[in-house]
Design brief:
The chain is mainly alpha-helical and 359 residues long. The protein has one domain. It contains 15 helices and 2 strands. It has a two-stranded antiparallel ribbon with strand order 1-2. It is globular. The model has no long low-confidence stretch (mean pLDDT 95).
Length: 359
């Protein structure tokens, strides 16, 4: 238990900060949502034109810069990359599309459950199923191959881009887009959001907190260390919602959510499966990118483009449910992660080679 104190405390702090961000203007059950916030940033820089989800979210910038600062201070900043970058980019797109079918990342899934949203329980089932499938392929030898040491400048670029984006936000740069209604219009003040992101980014860097990693480690090694952090988020956010009167148990009339159960489930199957292949959930990818991992930075760029595609082509769900194109996209995304899993799986590659040799 002693070794878990740090990550449990981190989870508790993230839960508290999530509640505080909602109190200061973020949408309910969305104190933090990596997928939703990256989607808003994509709209904020004009990659999509959905008017209700356009805003440069300082929380994302803070996560990256917090991880960057702490990793430099602790001498853990290491620039590495080159591990199947384009595959990671595609998987990032696919994971984002799955998340926007569900309307949230794994972190928001937990916050939605803490708010009483039973649709998120359905999503959790799909998420766990996706992780089980991903673990199956890991056990069969799935790998995106090794990465390589790069120059520090390469690792500095992603934090620098985030810093410049924050400068544009503070300067109210005229070319940025800002929602005038909807979830993108609902946000905490800039500096509160940035500080929240910095704190969570620093804590996440030190503890390696990751929802996908927690589920994966529990399945493969019976290790509950990473998972305990998310359980702490759930408990603290649940208590906070009850105290503040924001807890509402049920499927209907939940904030920024829909009741299409099968698509909630399948969307999170994609997120769980794809994230196992990538080696971490969207939160973890941002932290790794802040530490100098350019493969994670490429993955985040995949998230950004995936969010733009989801809204430009009508794939993202709304509170009315999954769209017709979104339902088609689910099966395309499942096919992509399946093909990626098979193509990079040592066991299946060996079977194919032996088959050719015998012929």
């Amino acid at each position: 238990m002693k070794e878990k104190r740090g990550i449990i405390l981190t989870g508790a702090i993230i839960g508290i900060i999530s509640i505080l961000l909602v109190m200061h203007g973020n949408p309910k059950n969305m104190g933090f949502c990596i997928a939703c916030f990256i989607r808003d940033i994509a709209g904020g820089i004009g990659l999509h034109r959905a008017p209700i989800v356009q805003y440069i979210r300082p929380e994302i910038i803070g996560l990256v810069l917090g991880a960057f600062i702490i990793s430099l201070q602790s001498k853990e900043f290491k620039t590495k990359g080159g591990s199947s970058p384009f595959t990671r980019f595609i998987l990032g797109m696919v994971v984002m599309i799955g998340a926007l079918i569900f309307l949230g990342c794994p972190l928001r899934m937990i916050l939605r459950i803490a708010g009483g949203d039973l649709n998120a329980i359905v999503g959790l089932v799909g998420f766990v199923v996706g992780i089980f499938i991903g673990v199956f392929f890991l056990n069969k030898g799935f790998s995106l191959k090794r990465n390589y040491t790069l120059s520090n400048f390469e690792g500095y670029l992603f934090p620098i881009v985030n810093l410049l984006l924050f400068v544009l936000l503070v300067a109210n740069f005229s070319m940025l887009f800002f929602s005038e209604e909807g979830p993108g219009y609902m946000h905490a003040p800039i500096w509160i959001a940035l500080i929240a992101g910095l704190i969570v980014g620093a804590l996440a860097q030190k503890t390696r907190i990751c929802m996908v990693g927690g589920m994966r480690d529990m399945i493969m090694f019976k290790d509950s260390y990473l998972l305990s952090g998310f359980l702490a988020i759930l408990v603290i956010a649940l208590i906070g919602n009850i105290v503040l009167g924001n807890f509402k148990l049920g499927f209907t009339e939940q904030p920024v959510a829909h009741t299409d159960g099968i698509w909630n489930l399948l969307g999170m199957v994609i997120v769980g499966w794809g994230s196992v292949l990538l080696g971490g959930c969207p939160l973890r990818q941002l932290i790794l990118a802040g530490e100098g991992n350019t493969d994670a930075a490429v993955t985040v760029m995949g998230y950004l483009v995936g969010a733009a595609i989801a809204h430009n082509f009508g794939l993202a769900s709304s509170t009315e449910g999954a769209s017709q194109y979104g339902k088609i996209a689910v099966f395309i995304c499942l096919a992509v992660v399946l093909v990626t899993s098979l193509a990079n799986c040592e066991a299946f590659s060996k079977e194919k080679s032996l088959s050719k040799a015998n012929n």
